[in-house]
Amino acid sequence: MFPLDFPLQQLAAHPEATRVLDPFCGRGTTLYAARLVGLPSVGIDINPVAASIAQAKLIQVTPGAVVRLARQILGGAMQGKAPEGDFWQWCFERETLRELVTLRESLLEMTTPTAAMLRAVMLGILHGPRNKNLPSYLSNQMPRTYASKPAYAVKFWAQRDMQPVRVPTLEVIERRAKRLLDAAPLAQGGKVYLGDSVETLDGLRQKFDLVVTSPPYYGMRTYVSDQWLRSWFLGGPPEVPYGSHGQIARQPNQEAFIQALAEVWAAAARRCNQGARLAIRFGALPSARTDPEQMLLASVRESKAGWAVKEVRQAGTPVKRKRQAEQFGKAGNAIEEIDLIAELIGLPR
Ligand SMILES: C[S@@+](CC[C@H](N)C(=O)[O-])C[C@H]1O[C@@H](n2cnc3c(N)ncnc32)[C@H](O)[C@@H]1O
Questions:
Q1: How far apart are CA 312 and CA 299, in angstroms?
Q2: Over the chain, what is the mean pLDDT?
Q3: 319 — pLDDT class (breaks 50, 70, 90)
Q4: Which residue from 86, 127, 193, 328 has the highest number of Cβ atoms inside 10 Å of its Cβ?
């Protein structure tokens, strides 16, 4: 995630904007910022976990509606079959796992806004640290931002004899829904698409005047596997997936990555009005041994879409816990982040 400040600053700098686009929307920070300032927005992400969380950023429902739906599902017959194996026995207490599987199974079939919000709440409470006081997460001790790999996690719990404790799912849902939704600003409309940015953009009809986005950082390849447990909740297999289909970060080399980004900037230009702004936050892992500024500039140039670069600046040193690389857990400290601002001056071919 990038911090909310980045899209908020861009929105403040472009008060003329009427609709905002984020072609790599992740968890929907740009969409939420747009909602805060009263604008509709469109987000695209190829990762189902990201798209589900982002979708919830656009929804208007009360915490009461979310809790009622959860209560109704859990009050019915238990559904689905719990995955088997050590990981599942260690990760969730038996009754909690039955509730979790029932919610997963029921929500797979539901498409209402309330169901979408409950799904996002579930993704948020699925795993995280164990508190001393009231539980906030359903799992045994785990990081919140990514799910540990099963073998590592089982070893961690077994070595400490850390048995999973009963967590009443409904109570955790209720607390989380209240916290998220009690003070939510009015929804402003918009939509999140699950899919590839270029393909999706080419199928859209709306026009945008502000694009605020952050593509995958160069060298960071764990967006999919880190979210394997949340992907399972959305209907994926109960294991760490191997591939990461369609992820732009999966390009074989730097040139291909630059080209893939260029295609996104070109597709975005085709959906923008003349004079539109494009604001990109980008970085590269130190291990990738590359200059993110040069890469990003090359991608905008390669797009040949009429984007004129107005400014490139260091993103500053964001608060440590907010940094994307830190969020995803594995990066060193020296990640360099830059912001690039461009204006659409020529109409794209
Ligand atoms: C740096 S993250 C975006 C984070 C976002 N700014 C936030 O606040 O959560 C980049 C996102 O790009 C998505 N992505 C990668 N390849 C994509 C593609 N071909 N089409 C659409 N999204 C893609 C990844 O799934 C990931 O969620």
A1: 13
A2: 91
A3: very low
A4: 127
Token pair in block for residue 182: 């009690």
User: Reduced to 3 states, what is the DSSP secondary structure of residue 125?
Assistant: helix
Task: For residues 247 and 242, give the distance between their C-alpha atoms in angstroms, rounded to a whole number.
Answer: 12
> What is the dotted CATH code of the domain comprising 5-48+186-344?
3.40.50.150
Query: 26 C-alpha vs ligand 1 centroid, how far in Å?
Result: 5
User: How far away, in angstroms, is 214 Cα from ligand 1 center?
Assistant: 7
CATH 3.40.50.150 positions along the chain are 5-48+186-344
Expressed in angstroms and rounded, the spacing between residue 315 Cα and the centre of ligand 1 is: 18
Of 268, 280, 274, 349, whose CA–CA distance to 309 is shortest?
Answer: 280
Nearest CA to ligand 1 atom 27: 26
User: Which stretches of the chain are DSSP H helices?
Assistant: 5-13, 29-36, 48-56, 63-75, 86-91, 94-108, 113-125, 150-159, 169-181, 197-203, 228-233, 254-270, 292-303, 324-327
